[in-house]
Automatic annotation (TrEMBL):
Keywords per UniProt: Membrane, Transmembrane, Transmembrane helix
Residues passing through the membrane, by range: 12-37, 49-73, 85-105, 111-128
Protein name: Membrane protein
Superkingdom: Bacteria
Length: 133
């Protein structure tokens, strides 16, 4: 885990310090005294989940998880075996590992390549296909 547990503990102790920070976080400009970096202040964390919890609190993290849940529910509703040809399936499956790594372990969610991968994943979904007759 390379110190990620300590970082999560720092985020939780910072966010749950007061009711206001619990609900709304420390804001986008706020800094975290991170034990991974020898108690130096940083503006990011290594997980997008801990980052959103830190910056936007429980409300922002809940909104993020709700949007992701609705996105995958929509995928399950509209996705059928006819919608996924082999090239689209390969593209979707190849996008999943870098997206998960950015969500859980590394700060790659702050890089352009993460956004490009997320855009490819989104555009490869069948719900964004133009319907023609």
């Amino acid at each position: 885990m390379n110190g990620k547990k300590d970082e999560w503990l720092d985020v939780v102790s910072t966010v749950f310090f007061s009711l206001q920070t619990t609900l709304f976080g420390i804001g986008w400009g706020g800094v975290l005294v991170n034990s991974i970096y020898s108690n130096e202040p940083t503006r990011f964390t290594h997980s997008i989940l801990s980052f959103y919890l830190l910056k936007t609190g429980v409300v922002g993290l809940g909104i993020l998880l709700t949007i992701m849940g609705l996105w995958f529910a929509r995928l399950q509703k509209t996705g059928n075996s006819k919608s996924f040809d082999i090239s689209r399936l390969i593209l979707l499956i190849s996008c999943i590992p870098p997206l998960l790594i950015g969500m859980l372990f590394e700060p790659t969610y702050k890089m352009l390549s993460y956004s490009v991968t997320l855009a490819l994943f989104t555009l490869a979904l069948p719900i964004f296909e133009k319907k023609t007759r």
